[in-house]
Amino acid sequence: MELELPSMASAIGVSVPVLRFLLCFIATIPVSYFRQLIPGGPPVKHLYAATSGIILSYLSFGFSSNIHFLVPMFIGYASMLLFRRQCGLITFVFALGYLIACHVYYMSGDAWKEGGIDATGALMVLTLKVISCAINYNDGMLKEENMREAQKKNRLLKLPSIVEYVGYCLCCGSHFAGPVFEMKDYLEWTERRGIWTPSEKEKSPSLYWPTLRALFQAVLCMGLYMYLVSKFPLSRFTDPVYQEWGLVKRVGFQYMSGLTARCKYYFIWSISEASIIISGLGFSGWTESSPPKPRWDRAKNVDILGVELAKSAVEVPLTWNIQVSTWLRHYVYERLLQKGKKPGLFHLLATQTVTAVWHGLYPGYFIFFIHSALLIAGSRVIYRWQQMVPPKMAVFKKILMVMNFAYTVLILNCACVGFLVLTLSETLSAYRSVYFLATAIPILLVLLGKIIKPTKPTRAKARKDE
Is the backbone peptide bond immediately before 39 cis, with ω within 30 degrees of 0? Predict the structure, then answer.
């Protein structure tokens, strides 16, 4: 088999390490399916989850990968065992610090950009899992009246056992590319509690059709990526021909480069979605429609049409890398907010900075995520203007809606070039080639929002007078 890998890799245009990863990544689907067929109680299933995760990691990245995974897992569990009152903060600082050190040592962004692969991508997902587990165990000591709904839902009153903890971290190959999920959900799923409790009234949802749908989506996205990648290579940004193009063509190329890169992520997340669905863990309850339909929100990491047709920038985090966005909201954004105060640009910038650090220390990441905060702030200004338009001026309101959509598409795709090329010189060169549109327009909108402020609704005044 090892002798066949180079020819197979050459045939599909990837390196041997990437092909090995892809084969193991796709193997998470049958591995996840067989888990539910394993006889025995929860301890056996935890052991299967841990063992299968270790084996797949070894086959994908080699022995060193499991050593790297062991470090944040040890940090998280040791802090919960010894320092419960500070375990969330300790794990956040040291697990994230170790991830950053690995990013610096391996310079993984360069490998990814050139079509390579290493274990740092999987380590990124694992880091979020151990941090959330420690924070939720920390939250188990708090009074319920001082907690947000997400904290009440996810808090852990009891320390998970070692086998539960390792099973959670490595099950279903979810540490390869996500999605991130909570320890409490993992335990309830394994123990058949909560929404997974067997019931005579409700049949268990079928796993096969949504799994096939996710696989079909993955095939389409991979096909589109392989078609586009040679037509819109990142190397074109440093090609003299690119500089000779007009502004419209350069903006169009940046959009298509972003779309090409997104297709690769759509493929990866569709495979992981199929893996989580076929395991049963992706089930998140029933809709209220008649008849009720099963929901698979826990497995879903991207809404492709939601990203590509987002009406405003505020919708993008809700449709792109959904579970990581949820993690950032619960464990960074909301925890920076003080009671009684509204979120501002600082909270967005702080959250996006954590996101950038989590991805790596390349300048392109920081520049892109800072622009993401500006993008959302500018989109909110347009939305507030929409809300201040009276009903009789419906046409003008629709114009603003179209403006918000066009603004989101333009700025997002021009800004995301930094995420793709990574280096400071290439990022600034690409931004300069389109006259820093991704920087200037959001800042201009934020400043205009300070001048053109929406008036307060009449109803609100009336209620106040009463």
Answer: no
- Alpha-carbon distance of 281 to 39, in angstroms, equals 17
Catalytic residue among 46, 68, 175, 359: 359
User: 371 an active-site residue?
Assistant: no
Written as six digits, the tokens of 111 are: 């490998």
* Residues belonging to the chain: 466
Distances (CA, A) of 210 to 202, 263, 271, 296, 451: 18, 20, 12, 8, 49
Indicate if the alpha-carbon torsion angle 455, 457, 460, 462 is positive or negative.
Answer: positive
| 71 close to 105: Cβ distance less than 8 angstroms | no
Convert the pLDDT of each residue in 405-448 to its tens digit.
Answer: 999 999 999 999 999 999 999 999 999 999 999 999 999 999 99
Using DSSP, state whether 341 is helix, strand or coil: coil
Over residues 392-413, the pLDDT tens digits come to: 888 999 999 999 999 999 999 9
Provide the whole-model pTM: 0.92
Kindly compute the dihedral angle of the four CA atoms of residues 191, 192, 193, 199, in this order, to the nearest 10 degrees. -160
Which residues, 6 or more positions from 250, have their beta carbon under 8 angstroms from its beta carbon? 242, 433, 434
Query: What does the radius of gyration of the chain's CA atoms come to, in whole angstroms?
Result: 23
